[in-house]
Amino acid sequence: xxxxxxxxxxxxxxxxxxxxxxxxxxxxxxxxxxxxxxxxxxxxxxxxxxxxxxxxxxxxxxxxxxxxxxxxxxxxxxxxxxxxxxxxxxxxxxxxxxxxxxxxxxxxxxxxxxxxxxxxxxxxxxxxxxxxxxxxxxxxxxxxxxxxxxxxxxxxxxxxxxxxxxxxxxxxxxxxxxxxxxxxxxxxxxxxxxxxxxxxxxxxxxxxxxxxxxxxxxxxxxxxxxxxxxxxxxxxxxxxxxxxxxxxxxxxxxxxxxxxxxxxxxxxxxxxxxxxxxxxxxxxxxxxxxxxxxxxxxxxxxxxxxxxxxxxxxxxxxxxxxxxxxxxxxxxxxxxxxxxxxxxxxxxxxxxxxxxxxxxxxxxxx
Length: 366
Known about the structure:
It is built from 8 helices and 18 strands. By secondary structure, it is an alpha/beta fold.
């Protein structure tokens, strides 16, 4: 505790918020993280699937092996359930026990001298001569909104808001096993997942299965995960009759970075800043990196006495190609071309670029 006086207060104890706070704490600055949850493992909106690049992040480099399961291959399925296998030499994904991972990250933050306050929601901030005062929390020079796609900090301060979303639902099956536990099973289908995909993967706890679709105005029904699982059960070996042990759902940003992301000593980070791939909806690695960058920029500002500059924070990817693919996915997605072109070299190369950022190796199977 720092008697309510901090250099920085971070709202949101997700990946970006904790990365930001630890970067600040390691520099010897006073930082507090508040989160409305009572338990960092509850009400999660992330799948917890980590790309290999994320495993080298300072927050995850010492992640215990019991919290992760390596997945070296991607099995990509066309709507008719024909598939190809994608790999890249030396590359692997990692699925996680997501609730345990988030609790572990919270413990690491406390050990790094971050004042972590749970069951503490952001409601208002009052301007002071030095920065901001949050009633019931304390005062700070800088405030960071790392509170997700529906950021209350962004709304309160009139910063950029995330407008484009996917809506995802995910089930966890404790103790379950897949026929191919070494693959991330991804299903492309306009019927089940318009604008996105379905996914099934082995985790340290069992199996996770999810489905997401583009969220549009007009109130579409939520993804029909039960019917989807009944459809794909024969190719993955997961019983469609089994009841899930836990369920999570939520909004996933897919429109790219928001503007503005900084104003009056208030900055946005991670999902709140729209730092999520428009195509893959992968935000963990980007959130870790962006959160740490925001933290480092604030440390420099505190040391110099000069407010943080946008140029001091690593540029967020423009994702021009992925935004073009997002538009195509939203407007031109049909099932029959994907069934027809699944094994074609152009589609294979595009899939390798999306999953591995480089060429890989493929094999096909009926």
